[in-house]
Design brief:
Length: 559
């Protein structure tokens, strides 16, 4: 369910072939004062005409994506953005401004580590059948909630089905992920930015495929498709192929150019599903003409809206099912509050009243995106989860640390989602020591499992709609596995995204709004700002959309 885009705010992709080249600038190729921009060409403008206009405005093209008419540009002109916006051939430019900000921290996802009071113990985790399951699967209440443990007896996923993890990377050294990882299809589109990511680990600042210095993408990948191999834990679709699409910085930022390039690569490579557990920085909401924003900021946001719309349309039209997290801002996306968090990079944030008819949270509110809300083990909407009739599609397990108020499970780690996590990140956080051992204080929320050959995997708890979305992406990949047809050109299985989406909705378990419909989270220690009104009926409502995803029903119900 997506609101309409205003006329002129978006356009269809230009009919051009994909060209992505030169993702990093050679050393010394640009002055130290130069800045990086993503420039979008006007609809129908050739790449040659756009490049000429960029040069005339004072920019140097670093890379180009002809599929959607975007260009990564360097310029040392302070007025480059305004000159680009004034050019007839260009829609405008979105700038990445380096000012030395700290890494982007999502305090929702690691709430258990920041909590003043937390309870040790098993929490809501319950025993599960051992058949086809891995040692840590007993802690994966999310698999049981959506019937993924039963679904794998019928359909564990097909190796010919490819799922893109558009995120901070994927740690392919984890044995649970290595078994399903595609080295040939995976790409890194997000070179390290030293002002937010720290010193580059490799020459050229483009981390090798199969690494993840942020952790978020590895966690998402594990939920989608960790192998059922008698080791560690398993994902919703344990036999599908995982593809790294690194579009996020190590620090957790997701900027326009890497995200657009990742989406178009997914389309051209023939991927079946792409998971997007993020929003495009630096604006929580991109508005066409917000009076609170400067003319330059307005122009930048119009560029982001246009480029993301083109990229999402392009991927959908090429057969990619798009799944996205609704966000952790505990608000009805059809009735957004004032945004106090933007921009989160490049300048200080300020108050921005949000007009719902002309502002979008991207990619969640973009075209063809299946929007997923988060639930706790009780099935209640997680207090942090966004919701609302306008954007929600389905609900899925995303974790809720504060679930189970009044019971022994309240404020326990096990209420969250356990999945794979990189050793390097856990060591940087202090949860694992230099020898690879989990420190005593972290043994409630970090787990280690090693193969007989001595290869070890690490796992930890996170929560968020970022954890709900991969559950849905996993089920989408099972639908393609069960009902897809062999692609005679590229091989593998294919199923039209609209068919996948329709079946996902049709097989979801309907869930009516709770009573009272206005839910308070005061008992859980939340302010009235978290109060959430559930609108709609049992067939479709603002908390659950079409229902809670059901993997077993999805693979056993005929299309």
């Amino acid at each position: 369910m997506s609101k309409r885009f205003t006329a002129g705010a978006v356009a269809t992709a230009t009919a051009l072939a994909l060209t992505v080249t030169g993702l990093t600038m050679p050393a010394g190729a640009a002055p130290s004062s130069s800045q990086t921009f993503t420039v979008v060409a006007e609809k129908g403008i050739s790449a040659e005409a756009a490049i000429a206009a960029i040069r005339a405005a004072g920019g140097t093209v670093v890379s180009r994506n002809d599929s959607v008419g975007t260009f990564q540009v360097r310029s040392d002109r302070a007025d480059f953005a305004s000159r680009a916006a004034a050019a007839d051939a260009l829609l405008g430019a979105a700038q990445q401004r380096a000012i030395g900000q700290a890494p982007k921290i999502d305090r929702v996802e690691q709430e258990n580590l920041l909590a003043a009071a937390r309870t040790k113990g098993a929490g809501s985790a319950a025993p599960t059948a051992a058949t086809g399951m891995d040692p840590l699967d007993e802690k994966l209440w999310g698999l049981r909630m959506i019937g993924a443990d039963r679904a794998r007896q019928t359909e564990p996923g097909d190796r010919g089905v490819t799922v893109g993890v558009l995120d901070t990377g994927v740690d392919a050294s984890n044995p649970d992920l290595a078994a399903n990882f595609s080295w040939s299809l995976s790409r890194n589109f997000a070179p390290d930015m030293t002002d937010i990511d720290g010193p580059c680990e490799v020459a050229g600042c483009l981390d090798p495929v199969g690494t993840d210095d942020g952790g978020h993408g590895t966690h998402v990948a594990g939920t989608i498709g960790a192998a059922a191999n008698g080791f560690g834990l398993s994902g919703v679709a344990p036999n599908v192929t995982l593809v790294e699409l690194k579009g996020g910085q190590d620090s957790g930022y997701f900027f326009l150019n890497p995200v657009v390039n990742a989406l178009t690569h997914a389309a051209d490579a023939g991927l079946d599903v792409v998971n997007m557990s993020f929003y495009v920085d630096p604006w929580l909401y991109n508005c066409t003409a917000n009076p609170a924003d400067s003319p330059e900021a307005q122009a930048e946001q119009r560029v982001i809206i246009e480029a993301m719309t083109r990229a999402l349309n392009y991927a959908h039209d090429k057969g990619v099912t798009l799944v996205g997290a609704l966000g952790n801002n505990h608000e009805d996306l059809g009735k957004p509050r004032t945004d106090y968090s933007s921009p989160d990079y490049g300048a200080d944030p300020y108050a921005r009243p949000i007009d719902n008819s002309s502002c979008w949270d991207l990619p969640a509110e973009g075209p063809h995106v299946i929007g997923v809300s988060a639930l706790g083990p009780s099935g209640k909407k997680s207090d942090f989860s966004n919701y609302g009739l306008e954007q929600i599609s389905v609900a899925a397990p995303g974790g809720w640390f504060r679930d189970g108020y009044g019971t022994s499970s309240y404020r326990t780690d096990a209420n969250m989602i356990l999945s794979a996590y990189p050793l390097k990140v856990l060591q940087e956080e202090g949860s694992v020591d230099a020898r690879g051992n989990v420190v005593p204080s972290a043994r409630d929320f970090v787990f280690k499992d090693c193969t007989k050959g001595g290869s070890c995997g690490y796992y930890t708890y996170l929560q968020g709609t970022s954890m709900a979305s991969p559950h849905a992406a996993g089920v989408a990949s099972l639908i393609v596995s069960a009902f897809g047809k062999t692609d005679p050109v590229k091989g593998g299985l294919r199923l039209a995204p609209d068919q996948v989406e329709k079946h996902l909705y049709a097989t979801a378990t309907e869930r009516a709004c709770p009573e009272p419909r206005l839910q308070s989270y005061a008992n859980e220690g939340r302010s009235a700002e978290f109060d959430a009104l559930c609108e709609g009926d049992s067939t479709f409502n603002g908390f659950y959309g079409h229902g809670i995803i059901d993997a077993y029903a999805a693979v056993t119900t005929p299309m």
